[in-house]
Design brief:
mainly alpha, Amino acid/polyamine transporter I, Rossmann fold, 2 domains, 5-stranded parallel β-sheet
Amino acid sequence: MVKSAHKKLGQWAATAICGNDILSSCLYVSGIAVIYAGIFAPLVLIIIVAILFFYKSVYTEVVEALPINGGAYNCLLNATSKSLAAVAGVLTILSYIATAVLSGKVSIEYLHTIFTSIPVIPATIGLLLFFTVLVILGIKDSAKVALGIFILHIASLVAFVSLGIYTLLTHHTLFIENAIHTVTVLHQEGGIVVALFLGFSASLLGISGFESSANFVEEQEEGVFRKTLRNMLLGVAIFNPLIAFIILGLSPLSSIVASKDYLLSQEALLIGGKVFQYFIVIDAFAVLAGAVLTSFVGVSGLIYRMASDACLPGWLTHKNKNGSHPRIIILFFLLCTSILIITGGNILSLAGVYTIAFLGVMSMFALGNLILRETRTDLKRTYSAPILFVLIAFTATLSGIAGNIQIDKNNLIYFAIYFFPVIMLVEGIVFQDLNIRILRRLTRGIKFVNKYLEDHFEDITEDRIVAFVNHVERLHPLLSYINSNETAWNITLVHCANHDNKDDRKRFEEIKEALPYLQKTGAFPYFKIECDYLDMPFGPEAIIEVAKKYKVRPNRIMIGSIHHFHPFDYDELGGVRIVF
């Protein structure tokens, strides 16, 4: 639809929101890298920066072509089937869960270094509950607050790096001792190659949050999205390797491993004393708490979108008077609390679940890029990523998933406990028409159950889908897509006027005439199809007109690809779905 008139986010406000997410990992990823790679931790983190560079191209191509909130879910929804998009959606939900739990737990661990009487697990649950109440009350993350936290965080990281380098230059360093210890341990445990692979896999946690900018692209000014990717890449490239380098020079490996949950607090005490430690702890708590809030807000929008697309139960779309979705938020809190209790708050287990989930999201995004090239070849693009970059990025994150499973099989078990029940629920809803038909056959002798299933089946099939179609040859692919991905049987085909083409009316008549023959062949016999000629050109105004006329939401309107000759962009159409 017509672009929103409200003020959108500029470069630094948008960077702050996603930057708080990705740069919060500076507070714990160096410790994780050192655990697996020892003295090679900075090298591992530099390799990860290279992977992030490749993903920058992947995200730029897809999101600038489809600048609608939803990230990997939106990419695959417009590139392929709803079923595959739902997998990306579930992975993103799990990523949000792990983000909230890991960030909440680490923020309390940092506080615990000063206030030692704080019980970590109960306090983490309390923090999650606090944000649950705030979001239900309608208090969301403010760009100004996010920017303030981001400035504080950058200042603390710069101060830490500056004091750390000064300390390394003026005091005895432990590089040689840590190098000897690393070589000795690696000789016993498989060698440098294995260490680099496991360190790389575990430390991919350091780029978590890179996908977050794609989830609020609609709120960003034109051209800002690409800048947020660049800024996040620079932040990760500068701080993560430097922090790992500094702590390897300041502390023995045994001390780094022991303080992995609150590493920068311990190191800050060494290089700046108690006052500087307090400063780092306050910053850590603020930025990690901000990441928790971002997770609550982000998951609320994603689950609402998936429920609106009939991928999750419709009752989740309920809004309260404050405009928030309490059912979604309470469910999210319960899921977060359960995974915290199941893992016992173990940061490596939480990090493993988190890493598998968000690497799955990024892999699905790279897969979506590859699919989009094949299924939407004519789609209007501002940039095309080199195919080699996409393949390297895709392979790297898939390897990272395999590495995290190799590190600890429990990571896969914890992940599976949440992934498979949710994906079964989602796929069950996506294919609920088929499931109801099967259940009706199985319960034929139970009248009240059969009657309930029949009524529900009528409700879901009575929904309306509106699709814009310009050529008769597009008719069969369009109806096949609806048949495979939607439960609605009421189909309205809309043909927009093209006054520059003298055969325009003829095209519309061809579409109308083809329908009876198509259905006589046995294709889509249960569809109730009507045709409508709209005497206006296709574009944002046509979408508005059709949405009002048939009382459908934009996400129930389907179109073909936006081409380069169109005078408008995809984001002006309000979230319609591209299906061919």
